[in-house]
Specification:
alpha/beta, eight-stranded parallel β-barrel, 207 residues
Length: 207
């Protein structure tokens, strides 16, 4: 229950690193993060399964692992859940087929969030809040829209997009239940120090 109530730090894999690099980084950062999300669009099912097995062998708890889109693999390997986007199978279909999985929904507007909520999403990942190199040319949605998202829906909203440690405080002040970070940790020159920095900023008022 504790992990559901406190502010969450989600870390997404980069799609730019090898299985070995991903596992090595995850092994050292996982004590400081709540969830690690496999966001590897180009990997085969076999590669994803092998990576999950390597992560578990390295000591990363299954309860901390999410995967993008592949609800079948999440279910087979007993991961915590799956992250779904507009190109994924519908939330209601996944929830009906794999009721044990927690489902996160990637949303960009209130309309998308309403649909995800109505279909039974367990949490929303909303953004990009700030401009980010992973979404070149796309302006940030801004803090006021994030706050509106938080106030509109009773399920947790996780902010994503361009979030640096010094921006965590203003994210928390909107009422968001956590942050999701991609390049800020997995592509950092010092992933462990980066994870510690985000953790400190996220939890400094609640510890």
């Amino acid at each position: 229950m504790e992990i559901e109530m406190r502010r969450r730090l989600h870390v997404l894999s980069s799609g730019k690193q090898s299985q070995r690099e991903l596992v090595e980084i995850a092994k050292i950062i996982h004590p400081y993060v709540d969830f690690i999300q496999l966001r590897e669009k180009m990997w085969t099912g076999k590669e994803l399964i092998m990576t999950i097995e390597q992560l578990v062998a390295a000591g990363v708890p299954l309860r901390k692992l999410y995967i993008n889109d592949r609800a079948d693999i999440a279910f087979m390997k007993e991961l915590r859940g799956v992250q779904l986007g507009h190109q994924s199978a519908s939330i209601s279909t996944v929830k009906q087929s794999f009721p044990s999985l927690k489902i996160g929904a990637s949303v960009h507007t209130l309309q998308e969030a309403q649909q995800a909520h109505d279909q039974g999403a367990d949490f929303l990942v909303y953004g990009n809040v700030y401009p980010t190199s992973s979404k070149p040319g796309r302006t940030g949605t801004g803090l006021s829209n994030l706050e509106k998202m938080v106030q509109t829906f009773p399920i947790p909203t996780i902010a994503i997009g361009g979030i640096t440690p010094d921006r965590v405080g203003e994210i928390v002040n909107t009422g968001a239940k956590g942050i999701a970070v991609l390049s800020g940790i997995f592509l950092s020159k010092e992933p462990l120090e980066a994870a510690r920095s985000y953790y400190k900023e996220l939890h400094q008022e609640v510890e």
